[in-house]
Amino acid sequence: METIKHVINTLFAPQYLVTLVIIGLFLFYRYRRVVTQNKLVAYSILAAPVVFFAVSTLDPNFWVQFKRPDNVPIAGMMLLVLFFTWLALKKAVQNDDRIRDGRPVAEAEPEEEEKVFIWPDLVYTELICLLLVSILLTVWSIVIPAPLEEPANPQLTPNPSKAPWYFLGLQEILVYFDPWLAGVVIPTFIVIGLMAIPYIDTNPKGNGYYTFEERRSEILLFQFGFIVLWVTLIVLGTFLRGPNWNFFGPFETWDPHKVEALKNVNLSDYYYYWLLDQPKPEAPPDADVITQLWAIFRREFVGIFLVLGYFLALPPALVIFSKFFRKMFIKMGFMRYMVMTFLLLSMGLFPIKMIARWTVNLKYFISIPEWLLNF
Amino acid sequence: MSGFGQRLKDKIGSPSQWFGDLTRTPVWKSLFRHKLPTDPKNRALVVLTNVFLHLHPLRMRKQGMRISYTWCMGGISFFLFLSLTVTGILLMFYYRPTAQHAYPDMLDLMESASLGLMREMHRWAAHLMIITVWLHMLRVFLTGSYKPPREFNWVVGVLLMVLTLLFSFTGYLLPWDQLAMWAVTVGSNMARATPLMGVEGPGAQLMAIGDVPLITAGSDMRFVLLAGRFVGEGALLRFYVLHCLGIPFIFVILLSTHFWRVRRDGGISGPGKGGRLAL
Ligand code: HEM
Ligand code: HEM
């Protein structure tokens, strides 16, 4: 038992958890027919997390985190997201088969096209939904009291201090990016990026019915963002981050004295100390502005070129070298293509920075503490 | 005797007769402009003449009504918002947004107020609403319902989601306990790092006139958000007003737009008659 727990604790570490979720998502969509049509597989996948939760609550350490009233909805959310992803995929697979056979999709069957009166059909459905939600809410409110801790005290900082649960994905990103990115720029980009989706996605297919094969890349990208970068990071931030934002496995005690060695290094450290084996360029403290700027630039130029190249050179390079992107460019036009690649590359920064951190302990690509600008 | 009983029974009538009588009274007739909705004409009138039901069209395609298609998530989000408004208004009767009263009011609310579940209902409905809004977005995405002609309604939806999160964030402070204060401290610390506009943000030093810095702990984004240098009474009042008045005001405008556009954009999305897929 202890070995199993130990293995699970290890597997839930950020680097493995995120990787496993990505692999899981890929397999889920890759083997969509098995996952949705083989009853045994389907039920096992849907039941697995429930069983995992149920068995795990026997562990006292797990139970302590799980039973916090504010954490209950998150467990519910995980199950709901899994179920609805599965349900949508099931309908998509059925429709994809129909499309291949040249039949109308399920949503376009003649009896589905038939117009029905709102009263009584829809009004009653709504009424039943409303009753069920009310019952759920009342029972939930009776069973689990709302949390109320000690009175607010600005002198006493709790450890860990956590944002409200729906922002914990962003707080988790703070591990990899500085606050100006994780707390300001990234949320802004998420909102703008979401709003831009309808104007970027020019694929006319898959409008008004479930399908996967007609919109593969759209769906995979969105699910990568939603399930991996949003939901998984929330779960990680809620259940697996303890004092000092250290990682703790689901069956570990939150030990406030756990110390983790800080061994992250900047790209410029790698370049100067490791590759060139020489000190970094530095301007004398009384030098004029231009000299200082030049010193900063020389210190950070590898990172600056990498980042600029990533955002500015990569989009045109893709058009030149990749047939897929060339087609896309022609179909979408200049503006739309540039906006889309910019948003995609921004999203791509997450896995890049995460992997760089997990493998080579990279702290910043560009680090200019003089201007509080770390990237 | 039995004759008398019969006569009495006729006089009193049966529940269905009472109901029939009721529908013939002038008051009833002034309320409802239709007969019982048992035939097409009256089923149409029911929806047309009722201000709440007329959010809906008279008739719609069967597929758009299916729970397996919409997951009912938009509707549930709306219902949760209504519940939050009702419980929120009840909470406002008890709750005073001052550092002195907020926390004791919470204790009173949970221990002695006669509607002792309101706080629970409000908090859990708020959590639930966030989840249902996300799931609603997921279903709209997976059915491709943001594609023309519904692009704009997706944008409105994203704004609604942002407001839902702000609702919850501002509400989170109000219990004024350690959980509330520090969650909001962590959240609002981010504003300190706003590029150019926060004291610890990149480029803040550039915002200066001569030697006088424009962005200080007393004038940056975080200060604007909290009405102070830390989460204190100013922040409590500010969050309270935003939570109970400011955000609801904007939310309701956007929500009306959202519903209006669902109708104007042709109702719940579907593959479309005569399209390639209808064959
Ligand atoms: C117009 C509608 C609303 C009004 C008048 C209102 C009013 C209030 C009041 C007076 C409180 C303080 C009492 C307390 O903390 O229990 C409160 C708390 C709260 N509100 Fe609202 N609210 C409204 C809508 C919402 C919505 C839509 C959300 C979320 C999506 C929300 C989320 C919260 C949260 C999370 C709390 C803290 C609950 C707690 O721990 O007690 N509220 N609200
Ligand atoms: C407070 C939040 C929201 C409420 C109360 C709400 C409510 C609704 C309702 C009741 C519908 C009718 C169909 C259905 O139930 O699925 C709907 C449709 C729609 N919603 Fe929302 N919504 C909200 C947030 C969002 C968000 C976050 C998005 C997207 C990012 C969105 C995009 C749409 C679109 C595009 C439609 C049309 C779908 C179709 O025709 O199939 N909404 N909304």
Descriptive account of the structure:
The complex is a heterodimer of chains A (375) and B (279). By secondary structure, chain A is mostly helical. Among the domains of chain A are: 2-107 and 208-245; 267-374, no CATH class. In chain A, 66% of the residues lie in helices and 2% in strands. In chain A, strands 2-3 form a two-stranded antiparallel sheet. In chain A, a hairpin with a 4-residue loop joins strand 2 (367-368) and strand 3. The longest helix of chain A has 33 residues, at 289-321. The model of chain A has no long low-confidence stretch (mean pLDDT 92). Chain B is mainly α and 279 residues long. The chains are: A mainly alpha (375), B mainly alpha (279). Chains A and B meet through helix 6, helix 7, strand 1, helix 8 and helix 10 of A and helix 4, strand 1, helix 5, helix 6 and helix 7 of B. Strand 1 (115-117) of chain A pairs antiparallel with strand 1 (59-61) of chain B, so a sheet runs across the interface. The complex binds protoporphyrin IX containing FE (2 copies). One protoporphyrin IX containing FE (HEM) is lined by residues 70, 73-75, 77-78, 81, 133, 136-137, 140, 145-146, 150, 153-154, 157-158, 160-161, 164, 258, 262, 268-269 of chain B.
A few lines on this structure:
The complex is a heterodimer of chains A (375) and B (279). Chain A is an all-alpha fold and 375 residues long.
